[in-house]
Amino acid sequence: MTTSELIVDALEHPDIPRCAALEKLMFADDSPWPATAFRAELNAPYNRYFAAREQPGGPVVGYAGISTLGSPGDLECEIHTIAVAPTHRGRGYGRALLAALLAVADECGAPVYLEVRTDNDTAIALYEGAGFVRSGVRRNYYQPSGADAYTMIRPASGVTLQQTGGAQ
């Protein structure tokens, strides 16, 4: 997927040091992922990770990951992370990364779950705009800060929450 100065492609092992550095910058108060965590995520066969870049082969300015879990006919997806460097926010990188993740879920017809800080209004608006709804609160979810998180769900493509039995 490419638009003007916005490229979303596969996150690769050579991107790991940049991702770990961005984690330290953006999530210093909430246990940023070290390089070993990114390596493990990329090596797991049920995960897909994407990178946002300004040019082909350029440095990572954002990244996102999703898991597909369950068995055929009963799959669900969980978004692990979406992060965009502070210098690149507000330019559509987060929206493009989310679209790549949702395409993975749509390919297998799975609902998507995620957690988001209750005080992250920008991310909440992004997710709600993509069809997610709040389904619960996880108290003290982010550590060590103790920040709460909303659990959000987007039903499988073509399914409404009423059809799945969830609240509207």
TrEMBL record:
<dbReference type="InterPro" id="IPR016181">
    <property type="entry name" value="Acyl_CoA_acyltransferase"/>
</dbReference>
<keyword id="KW-0808">Transferase</keyword>
<dbReference type="InterPro" id="IPR006464">
    <property type="entry name" value="AcTrfase_RimI/Ard1"/>
</dbReference>
<protein>
    <submittedName>
        <fullName>Ribosomal protein S18-alanine N-acetyltransferase</fullName>
        <ecNumber>2.3.1.266</ecNumber>
    </submittedName>
</protein>
<dbReference type="Pfam" id="PF00583">
    <property type="entry name" value="Acetyltransf_1"/>
</dbReference>
<dbReference type="GO" id="GO:0005840">
    <property type="term" value="C:ribosome"/>
</dbReference>
<keyword id="KW-0963">Cytoplasm</keyword>
<keyword id="KW-0012">Acyltransferase</keyword>
<feature type="domain" description="N-acetyltransferase">
    <location>
        <begin position="6"/>
        <end position="157"/>
    </location>
</feature>
<comment type="similarity">
    <text>Belongs to the acetyltransferase family. RimI subfamily.</text>
</comment>
<dbReference type="InterPro" id="IPR050680">
    <property type="entry name" value="YpeA/RimI_acetyltransf"/>
</dbReference>
<keyword id="KW-0689">Ribosomal protein</keyword>
<keyword id="KW-0687">Ribonucleoprotein</keyword>
<dbReference type="GO" id="GO:0008999">
    <property type="term" value="F:protein-N-terminal-alanine acetyltransferase activity"/>
</dbReference>
<dbReference type="InterPro" id="IPR000182">
    <property type="entry name" value="GNAT_dom"/>
</dbReference>
